[in-house]
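Worked example 4.2. Below are the chains of a multi-component assembly; read each line carefully before continuing.
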Amino acid sequence: MSGELKKTSEGDAVVPALDFGRAWEYAPSPEATDHVHIAPRQELFIGGRWVAPRSGKYFDTSSPSTEEKLAEVAEADERDVDDAVQAARRAYDRYWSKMRGGERAKYLFRIARAIQEKSRELAIVESMDGGKPIKESRDVDLPLAAAHFFYHAGWADKLDYAFQGRAWRSLGVAGQIIPWNFPLLMAAWKLAPALACGNVVVLKPAETTPLTALLLARIIEEAELPPGVVNVVTGAGATGAALAAHAGVDKVAFTGSTDVGKRIQRAVAGTKKKLTLELGGKAANVVFADAPLDQAIEGIINGIYFNQGHVCCAGSRLLVEESVHDLVVRKLEDRIATLRVGDPLDKNTDVGAINSKMQLEKIRELVAAGEEEGAERHTAPCALPTKGYFFAPTFFTGVAQSSRIAREEIFGPVLSVMTFRTPDEAIEKANNTMYGLSAGIWTDKGAKIFWMAQRLKAGVVWGNTYNKFDPSSPFGGYKESGFGREGGRQGLLAYTELA
Amino acid sequence: MSTRRTTTERLGIHAAQANAPHESRAVTHAGAAEVEGFDPGARVTVNKAYKMYVGGAFIRSESGRYFQSRGASVAGSADPDVVNVPRGSRKDARDAVLAAKNAGDGWAARTAYNRGQILYRLAEVMESRRDELATSLERGGQDAEQAAREVEGAIDRAVYYAGFCDKYQALVASLNPVAGPHFGFSWPEPMGVVAVVAPERPALLGLLSTVLPLIAGGNTCVVVAGSEDPRTAVVWCECLATSDLPGGVVNLLTGQASEMAPHLAKHREVVAMDVWSADADLRAAAEREGSGNVKRVRTHGHDETERLPSDAGQGLGFIERFLETKTVWHPVGV
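Applying the procedure described above to all two chains together yields the following structure tokens:
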């Protein structure tokens, strides 16, 4: 053990635990919801019309923070999916594939503008239906969703430049299945490039968070897109499976778990369907001793506790250079004590509700596994609301690489801390995963960032920052985190066929 | 040698039976064969043993199995009309993946300029062996003119990709104008080990058209050669072996694609697969089995194979489809 480490270990005198007393208590500051009306019954959006499901079945969507029902939502079965695919095909043949790119662009610009105009309503519904803090839905999800439409709108009439002179064509009907962690933003990531490249869409939102996708369908209706260009079919896994398996679908795009992604890949094998997958992650966030540690702490916190850790690119494995391990742990303990967990609609809330009971149980199971496997648990000393699904920000130290909490995607506010001594060891450990979506590097040395970035098997590498997104910046994974990119020029490849 | 294999399999009797018996000697009278004009004083030619190319070495199948490749007679060629070619096994495929994996980091770390020079060296070696390559293609069924044209096309394709090794990055990378105080950019990286089921025809140009863009992009590969003219694939590997290409960057197996390809599709170290000249069942099997590690599987129908000899058979797209995009962000500030 080095002398420096010893000094830090003894060093509660050097870095004492912070005592905030009552200084960190805030008065509640809830976002008003009185102007938001959620229709009690939500229908399917097919062929430009709102239609009841053929089965007549509806399922409830509820708020994970209050456990109260928000609305009942149509459950689409194979017949509804077939209706939607046929409506999309007609719209492709009659309208969308025949339009000039510049005209398609203007529809996308309209959608971007309408999202901005309705952003407060959308942010509130997003936080109610999904549980994410209003400051994140308001400041991250909504601006990015609008930006994705605005960005891709501009591509629609410039695609001849996008592929170095290669001839391109649109694919036809895209079946898009999106997750519950960024419901509206993922809809935007999927719809905007597909539509810009001249495809039509059948979108299947996640069953726990369908409401903002349906509000987006309303925006699309109000923007007067030709009927059938965008169709939204709500439902659970069976609806998604029916969509991916439908013979009339030319392209399947899926964001979600690696398990389901593999099932979809098997399902489309032997067909002519194009496929892109954006799957799970277990990102390494690597902190060197020479890093600006206070900035790094903020990056670690943002990396794992942003959106309750329901982020496929979450920095869920913290690799700390051994000499600063104790100091980093000390600072992390202080920092998670200041995170405010609770009402997603409160503007002060840092960590909102876990998206569903099922997800909460999965997080609890993995945390229990971490404790059983001998890792040391550190949990924020915060009071949790009595109703709703909440989990206090947590991290584990003394985690073995073989531990479940180091290998499996927890998809919750739980961080696993491990150490390394040399940059080579950091690379070895960082890449020791089946996933490869993202990674973080914290160091004062530019050359070290590039050396690391070249060797990390990950699609997105954040140097001295974390969890940054932009429509102009390609996002997507290596290895079992999926294939294809979303965003940037590279993202257009997912929705075009090149000669 | 594995004891699980039956004696007949081990001895390759299945494979031999699949080929018609050798009939080049006419029977003149009962019980004896005669060769017309046999000169007891003439020099006896040295026949080449055709082997697979794995990890930079020419090897037989670990299984000891073989199949017989029958070719047309070519005037002036020392090669016999019928030769024994290794019938690669699943174990051979695994060994080849290991060789490709081990070569991967070193190949990807070469400078783009260096990769380009090695591919150009390959073109030089092929040019000096064009007669040998053409003769092999003739033996594989091409007429002399077709064979010469295909060899020229193949050499030119090597030159084409030699010059692409340090260009594609600028064409597919991007500076991302992100909305915030960050510097963001994306660059292409090789995927890793790519398994290729090579086109049957054109035996040489098809092989180069599928393999060269992969290695130009920094990948390493395991290639299952077409079974109609495996000899030409082996002769080409002799060019690879003498062109400064590090061993293991291209590994070539001979035998049956239907036997090895599904196994390669299941292999977790194989990150991508490019399937040509396979029937619909084999293509679907590769796509299905590839899902085990979210493999990037590309399959190609007959029409795409037909286009390989033309200018449509080369280009940036052939490189780009087996590249990953890595995006890097860094704050900007003082």
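Take a moment to check your reading of the output against the notes. The radius of gyration of chain A is 23 Å. Residues 291 and 443 of chain A are 4 Å apart (CA to CA).
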